[in-house]
Amino acid sequence: xxxxxxxxxxxxxxxxxxxxxxxxxxxxxxxxxxxxxxxxxxxxxxxxxxxxxxxxxxxxxxxxxxxxxxxxxxxxxxxxxxxxxxxxxxxxxxxxxxxxxxxxxxxxxxxxxxxxxxxxxxxxxxxxxxxxxxxxxxxxxxxxxxxxxxxxxxxxxxxxxxxxxxxxxxxxxxxxxxxxxxxxxxxxxxxxxxxxxxxxxxxxxxxxxxxxxxxxxxxxxxxxxxxxxxxxxxxxxxxxxxxxxxxxxxxxxxxxxxxxxxxxxxxxxxxxxxxxxxxxxxxxxxxxxxxxxxxxxxxxxxxxxxxxxxxxxxxxxxxxxxxxxxxxxxxxxxxxxxxxxxxxxxxxxxxxxxxxxxxxxxxxxxxxxxxxxxxxxxxxxxxxxxxxxxxxxxxxxxxxxxxxxxxxxxxxxxxxxxxxxxxxx
Length: 425
Hints:
Elements: H1 3-22, H2 27-46, E1 50-54, E2 60-65, H3 68-73, E3 83-84, E4 87-88, H4 103-113, E5 122-124, H5 126-132, E6 136-140, H6 150-158, H7 163-168, E7 170-173, H8 177-189, E8 193-197, H9 203-211, E9 215-218, H10 223-237, E10 240-241, H11 248-267, E11 272-278, H12 283-294, E12 301-306, H13 311-318, H14 344-350, E13 353-357, H15 359-372, H16 383-393, E14 403-408, H17 415-422
Parallel strand pairs: 6-14, 7-8, 7-10, 8-9, 11-12, 11-14, 12-13
Antiparallel strand pairs: 1-2, 3-4, 5-6
Helix pairs in contact: 1-2, 4-6, 4-11, 6-8, 6-11, 8-9, 11-12, 15-16
């Protein structure tokens, strides 16, 4: 059967079944049943002959000879259908750019950074479980030598540089943790590092960056303006620009977090039912999606943003990129005005959901982590837990009996913020 004939047969099945189902079911329920009938039809008719690409709500957008698209794009998703946002969801790789990183890049990044970074703990806290009503596995990236997961990203990117690039040095824009990771990696590898931060950046993070030997440049009113300056600086001084998100080596480094988490959960005999990630640029979440899809694991990945910085939340619901305004937030480490080229499409099509949490919810989660795990983290690191707490009250994204992973992404909290959180009634 040719691809054109195959698509025509599927279309006829959808029309006939749709007319029958609409007679007995409301529109929304009928759409869900149609999605499942599409899945059944594809499974039966394809018979292993075709790879199928499916977009939102089960709409079939392409049928390709088996192996052809996988060979062209090297993407492990093709040929598998997964559930997402209430119906089947998959990227059509003919319309969207290829997945930004491969599983092989993740494995290679893990090998490169392993000599510098021991595994961080994955722990369960019974008190936290009891309060949330589910098993929570806490990934302690706050125990990294820089106090944040982004040292993985920095080392993965910097260990890929040749000798000439290392001698010229690197530059980046950061709210703190990416810059701190680069400063730390630069000290280990003897690479000059310049970090551009907004003028209102955390003094604690600024001091930590300079303490690792990096040059600090304070410029711009927010992260996006600091990025613009860092791009000009890189061109002017022939430095390598290492973007905190739009860099495939950075994404591969972030993916090692999930690689490590899966291995630790398996050792502990825990089955993961969902993973919650605070999202700014989205390197953690895209890294997780890469590893999970490559291994054929249908674990839901949920993104969480501060309501004061809702760019991805708004874009996810709109189905396209939306630039949102920023309000002051305790989760300043994930506050961005725009989405990013390498991560937006994977996030849009790969995430099960994106939640937004209030400043009050973030502060409550900070205090909860302090009292139940005895770990002090920064605002952005508590956003994932805030999203999980919201889910348990409204609509759980995970099956009962399975563990939920929350990442404490960083511990570099500003002193003034710490005082306001701890001393608040």
